[in-house]
Automatic annotation (TrEMBL):
Keywords recorded for this protein, A-Z: ANK repeat, Membrane, Transmembrane, Transmembrane helix
Gene3D superfamilies tied to this protein: Ankyrin repeat-containing domain
Claim: Transmembrane helix is one of the keywords in the record: yes
ANK repeat feature ranges: 93-125
Pfam families linked to this entry: Ank_2 (PF12796), PGG (PF13962)
Cellular component terms per the entry's GO annotation: membrane
Residue intervals passing through the bilayer: 459-482, 502-528, 540-566, 578-610
InterPro entries (UniProt xref): Ankyrin_rpt, Ankyrin_rpt-contain_sf, PGG_dom
Record's protein name: PGG domain-containing protein
Organism listed in the record: Solanum pinnatisectum (tansyleaf nightshade)
The PGG domain, residue ranges: 455-561
């Protein structure tokens, strides 16, 4: 190759690199212009050079970006050169610019595209979604109404898997639009997709859309890691005024005061407010779907049953609404021949179990039902779990330390609670494997019981050191009272001038000492315990409460004795230690919150133990 040829090749390469650089720069400028940040003339120049060439690896063209950003001016300046074929250009997902405009609620762009070509409403993407379906899935009510007025038919409101626009709104939590669709097109309520799921079936899988699936229930305090925070959030939730009310088939939105809007503008409160309004809309939608629902029975279980779905996911509001409107469906059985009482017992759903026992007319029949494997309701009560967890073996790897103790406590309490409602003749019934309910309980809880035993012994040994230390310190402090003793009389010197303050100090030290001794005795009883399953019913919980209360008082009185000692020495009169009071208040407040967080589960257990113990109309004896 000659030098001349080499030079030409190099120049060609340089020119090609420059052209590529200019092209990339032009594409970047056009992208910025599409978002409304640059001159529209750049768009015209790019359009003349590139047209509908893809701008990214998603296959998006400049028209897609104009639609996404709602850049109506950009469309208008390109309008003379736009063809129907340009507007039909799809990206890698099969979406046209109309799909993108509908997805992001750009109503003006949608109107402009429809004026150009109305038949674009029939174009489907790779999933078979029309722009109408995309607008519904995104909750864009204005765009949905516009497209529905243009055409609402089987061709536009369904996608390839048979899901309708109503399915889409429910699946994406767009309940406001879903309510509008039910009002306008009630025939969609009983439309089923290829998996035989109706909109109500989809709603029955949306646990977090209902209050019972949230953390804002007083009955569910203890569900989150921080009990004090959950208490505050639950109180706030109950105090927030609802935005939506239902009257017949219409939904009314209430106006809020400026002060309320200002308060709820805080991010933390805004999250709680949005959750509550979403729960309200979901429940309203559930009622409307049920009013139009065709409750057909299918013995081959191909069609999913909303009642069974809601029971499995502990969506109690939906279960109650179903039974209020269709009380006869309480007799429904799932594919394992279980009724919803079996499901409630398996998941330790306290609310649903008590509701069914109180409200169902033929509860004796439900309590006596046996599934296809010969399991009675007591066999389901033998499953591992707590009211805050779903159940069984998938939790074994997670169970450790204190959690295993609470799961054993709740397990035995729940088993006995259910047993009291079951006829005694069913207590010793064996399933198809020849196992009674009590035998199954012991088998299922064997590993948990061992974990709980190890956890209690380890905690008792650790706490015993603290209790012994508190006992020793307070015992020694009684004989080292501030001010010393009178050498002649042997009485404390402060007894003459500060008699009241001194007696308060002695009271605090004595109370701390007695509490420490009680704690030591209780902790020693843990070490000597045999840890049978029945011990977790009342014996161990009672001792845990005694230990927690006594160690709390021992610590509190020790701190008070320390404060009283400083008071006797006039430390608080020194202006240089003002910060000490603030530190003590802050530390005391923090320690109280920690104690509430730690102690709440056991007191919650005792509350339910007492309430279950005094429920009327029981069978058998605890």
């Amino acid at each position: 190759m000659t030098k001349k040829e080499l030079g030409i090749s190099r120049r060609d390469r340089i020119k090609m690199q420059r052209d590529l650089s200019d092209k990339a720069s032009r594409r970047s400028e056009a992208y910025r212009a599409a978002s409304g940040g640059r001159s529209l003339e750049i768009l015209c120049e790019f359009w003349r050079e590139e047209g509908v060439a893809p701008m990214d690896n998603r296959g998006d063209t400049i028209l897609h970006f104009l639609a996404i950003h709602g850049n109506l001016a950009g469309f208008e300046i390109l309008d003379p050169d736009l063809s129907i074929k340009d507007l039909e250009t799809r990206n890698s997902n099969g979406d046209t610019p109309l799909h993108e405009a509908a997805k992001f609620g750009k109503k003006e762009v949608v109107e402009m595209i429809l004026k150009k070509e109305k038949d674009l409403v029939f174009v489907r993407n790779n999933l078979g979604e029309t722009p109408l379906y995309v607008a519904a899935a995104s909750g864009e009510k204005d765009v949905f109404t516009l497209l529905a007025n243009c055409d609402f038919s089987e061709e536009t409101m369904k996608r390839n898997d048979g899901k309708t626009v109503l399915h889409a709104t429910v699946a994406h939590d767009c309940y406001d639009l879903a309510i509008y669709i039910v009002n306008q097109y009630p025939e969609l309520v009983n439309q089923r997709d290829n998996e035989k799921m109706s909109a109500l079936n989809v709603l029955a899988t949306k646990k977090l859309s209902f209050k019972s699936g949230s953390d804002y229930l007083f009955e569910e305090i203890g569900k989150t890691p921080s009990v004090p925070v959950q208490m505050i959030e639950t109180i706030i939730y109950s105090c927030i005024p609802p935005l939506y009310t239902q009257a017949s088939t219409k939904i009314f939105s209430r106006e809020r005061s400026l002060f309320t809007d200002f308060l709820l503008g805080n991010f933390w409160l805004q999250v709680i407010d949005e959750a509550k309004q979403n729960h309200i809309l979901a429940l309203i939608l559930a009622k409307m779907l049920l009013e139009n629902y065709d409750w057909s029975y299918n013995t081959d279980y191909i069609v999913p049953n909303p009642l069974i779905q809601a029971s499995n996911l502990k969506i109690n509001e939906l279960v109650v609404e179903i039974l209020e409107i269709y009380p006869e469906v309480v007799e429904t059985l799932d594919e394992k021949q279980r009724n919803i009482l079996h499901i409630a017992v398996e998941h330790k759903n306290r609310f649903l179990f008590d509701y069914l026992v109180q409200k169902v007319a033929h509860i004796e029949r439900m309590l006596a039902d046996i599934d296809e494997d010969g399991n009675t309701i007591l066999h389901y009560a033998a499953h591992v779990g707590s009211p805050f967890r779903t159940s069984t073996s998938e939790h074994f790897e997670e169970v450790w330390c204190v959690l295993s103790v609470f799961m054993m406590m709740w397990g035995i309490l729940w088993f006995k609670h259910v047993k009291l409602h079951v006829h005694p003749r069913l207590w010793d019934v064996k399933n198809s494997k020849g196992v009674t309910a009590e035998e199954l309980f012991e088998k299922n809880h064997l590993e948990i019981r061992k974990e709980a035993e190890d956890a209690i012994r380890n905690l008792a040994n650790s706490a015993l050191i603290l209790a012994t230390l508190l006992c020793t310190v307070n015992f020694a402090a009684i004989f080292t009272i501030p001010g010393g003793f009178d050498q002649k009389t042997g009485l404390p010197i402060f007894l003459q001038n500060l008699k009241h303050e001194l007696w308060m100090l002695i009271f605090y030290l004595g109370a701390a000492l007695i509490s420490s001794v009680v704690t030591i005795g209780t902790l020693l009883s843990f070490i000597l315990c045999k840890f049978h399953s029945d011990d977790f019913y009342i014996s161990l919980p009672t001792r845990v409460v005694i230990a927690m209360v006594s160690v709390f008082y021992a610590t509190t009185f020790s701190v008070l004795a320390c404060v009283q000692t400083l008071n006797l020495d006039n430390i608080f009169l020194n202006k240089d230690v003002w910060w000490l009071i603030i530190v003590m208040v802050v530390v005391g407040f923090i320690m109280t919150l920690i104690y509430i967080d730690l102690a709440f589960p056991i007191f919650d257990y005792l509350y339910y133990f007492v309430s279950y113990s005094f429920i009327s109309n029981k069978r058998g004896v605890m």
